[in-house]
Amino acid sequence: MFSKLAVCVLLISTVYSAKQQNGQQGGPQGPPPPPFLQNVTDAARQAFFTIVSNENLTITEIDSQTATWASTYGVSDIYNEFQTNQTALETAIQKNITSVISNLSSVESSLETIFNNKDQTRSAINASISTLIQSNPIEVQVLLQLRNPMPPQGGPQGGFGGQQGGNLHRQ
Ligand SMILES: *[C@@H]1O[C@H](CO)[C@@H](O)[C@H](O)[C@H]1NC(C)=O
Ligand SMILES: *[C@@H]1O[C@H](CO)[C@@H](O)[C@H](O)[C@H]1NC(C)=O
Ligand SMILES: *[C@@H]1O[C@H](CO)[C@@H](O)[C@H](O)[C@H]1NC(C)=O
Ligand SMILES: *[C@@H]1O[C@H](CO)[C@@H](O)[C@H](O)[C@H]1NC(C)=O
Ligand SMILES: *[C@@H]1O[C@H](CO)[C@@H](O)[C@H](O)[C@H]1NC(C)=O
Ligand SMILES: *[C@@H]1O[C@H](CO)[C@@H](O)[C@H](O)[C@H]1NC(C)=O
């Protein structure tokens, strides 16, 4: 349930200790520290990172020890609220993934219909794909990636008549 916390906090703890070593005060990179760390003492923060950076602990053990930690330092309320938020976020992400997966096959049908109609200009194809992107940006991105598994960066190699000949309208 709280596996997100462990992962997210591990990241934070890495960023945090790297910054401490550099004497930096926190920069634009990395997620912000969880709010329950905001007003605790340095010792409490240290105790927290000792728990979450212990590679020997299971996720369940990390969750139970950090809950005890929160209680010890009087920040259980905000700790629990944060956990509830993380759980809700995870649920929302999972819901999106499920939705994208169930959308994929119908969006693929739409893409195939567009690409299989040869009686249209490339800019007409472009326009149809742009419309599809409006309603299903992630699905289109994933499907175009699968359709054209070449790295998108690297500039226009070959151009017209290049190794993609015949698929020039694919993007
Ligand atoms: C931390 O303390 C400041 C100043 O007292 C307060 O404004 C802020 O809401 C507190 N943050 C948390 C997460 O408790
Ligand atoms: C984790 O386990 C290893 C092997 O048992 C041990 O050497 C190490 O001290 C442990 N680390 C912590 C933080 O307990
Ligand atoms: C939890 O989410 C609510 C709504 O987005 C937000 O207002 C609140 O600050 C969050 N609390 C914590 C502890 O992250
Ligand atoms: C879920 O998808 C919607 C649009 O498809 C997006 O606005 C929202 O931010 C996504 N939620 C999460 C948690 O990724
Ligand atoms: C799935 O497709 C529907 C209809 O096109 C769209 O409204 C929804 O946002 C799509 N799901 C996601 C997660 O993008
Ligand atoms: C198709 O759209 C892409 C990106 O919007 C653009 O760079 C390209 O020139 C367009 N091609 C045609 C033939 O309209």
UniProtKB/TrEMBL annotation:
Keyword Glycoprotein (UniProt): no
**Keyword Manganese found:** no
Signal peptide span per the entry?
Answer: 1-17
Residues of the SXP/RAL-2 family protein Ani s 5-like cation-binding domain: 44-149
The record's keywords, sorted A to Z, are: Signal
Q: Where is the composition biased (Gly residues)?
A: 155-165
Q: Looking at the record's lineage, which domain of life comes first? A: Eukaryota
Q: What is this protein called?
A: SXP/RAL-2 family protein Ani s 5-like cation-binding domain-containing protein
UniProt-annotated stretches for the region Disordered: 147-171
